[in-house]
Design a protein that fits this description.
- By secondary structure, this protein is mainly α.
- It folds into two domains: 95 residues, no CATH class; 85 residues.
- The chain has six helices and two strands; from the N terminus they run E-E-H-H-H-H-H-H.
- It has a two-stranded antiparallel sheet.
- Helix 1 runs antiparallel to helix 4 and helix 2 crosses helix 4.
- The longest helix is centred in the last third of the chain and has 30 residues.
- It is elongated.
- The termini are close together.
Length: 180
C-alpha cells in the first residue's frame, strides 16, 4: 500500500488514506487539519521502511527523535496515543512482504552484533591474566558484519523495487479505475 510519498522533503498523503478507518480516526482527532496531517507524517516517519528514522531500533528513541527533529513547531500539539498506535500497526501490516520482514529481522540481528562489538574490551583479562576476547574471532565478526551490510543494502533495494513496482492495496486483484 503506497499511502505516503516523500516529495521535496514533504510527506504527501494519498487521498485513499482518508477512506481507511485507522487513518480516518487519526484525522478525526484534530480540529486543526495541519496537526492531523503532521500526525499522519509522524506515522510515515515512524513506520515506513523508506524513512530514515525506521533504522532506529529502539522505538522510544525513534519517537523522541521524530518529535524533536521533524515536528518542532507542532510536536506539542500532536496526540500520539492508542489511535496512533492502531494506525501504525495497520500501516505496518500493509507494507509487510517476506523480504521486508526478513530485512527487519536482519536489521535487529545486526544491531545486536553492533551492541556486542561495542561491549568488547580488548584489554580485559580473565583471572589468569589472559585476554577474555579473542582478537581473531572479533576480526572475523567485523568482516562478517561488512558482508552483512552489503547484503542488507541489496535486500533494501529489492524491497524498494517490490514496493515501487506495485501500488495495489494488499488483497485486491487489480488496481481499480480511480486508484493509482
Amino acid at each position: 500500500m503506497k499511502i505516503f510519498n516523500l516529495i521535496n522533503y514533504e510527506v504527501q498523503i494519498d487521498p485513499v488514506a482518508y477512506t481507511l478507518k485507522a487513518f480516518k480516526a487519526v484525522m478525526d482527532k484534530y480540529e486543526d487539519k495541519q496537526c492531523a496531517i503532521a500526525e499522519m507524517a509522524y506515522i510515515y516517519f515512524y513506520t515506513d521502511w523508506a524513512s530514515d528514522y525506521v533504522n532506529i531500533v529502539d522505538l522510544k528513541e525513534r519517537k523522541k527523535r521524530i518529535l524533536s527533529e521533524v515536528f518542532i513547531d507542532k510536536s506539542s500539539k500532536l496526540k500520539i496515543d492508542k489511535i496512533t498506535d492502531v494506525a501504525i500497526a495497520f500501516y505496518n501490516e500493509r507494507q509487510k512482504t517476506l523480504a521486508y520482514e526478513l530485512y527487519e529481522d536482519a536489521k535487529y540481528a545486526i544491531n545486536k552484533i553492533r551492541d556486542y562489538l561495542r561491549s568488547v574490551d580488548l584489554l580485559a583479562l580473565d583471572n589468569n591474566g589472559k585476554p577474555i576476547y579473542d582478537v581473531i574471532k572479533l576480526t572475523k565478526t567485523i568482516e562478517s558484519a561488512t558482508t552483512l551490510i552489503t547484503k542488507m543494502a541489496e535486500l533494501e533495494e529489492a524491497i524498494k523495487a517490490d514496493k515501487h513496482g506495485s501500488n495495489k492495496l494488499k488483497g485486491i486483484d487489480e488496481i481499480g479505475l480511480f486508484e493509482s
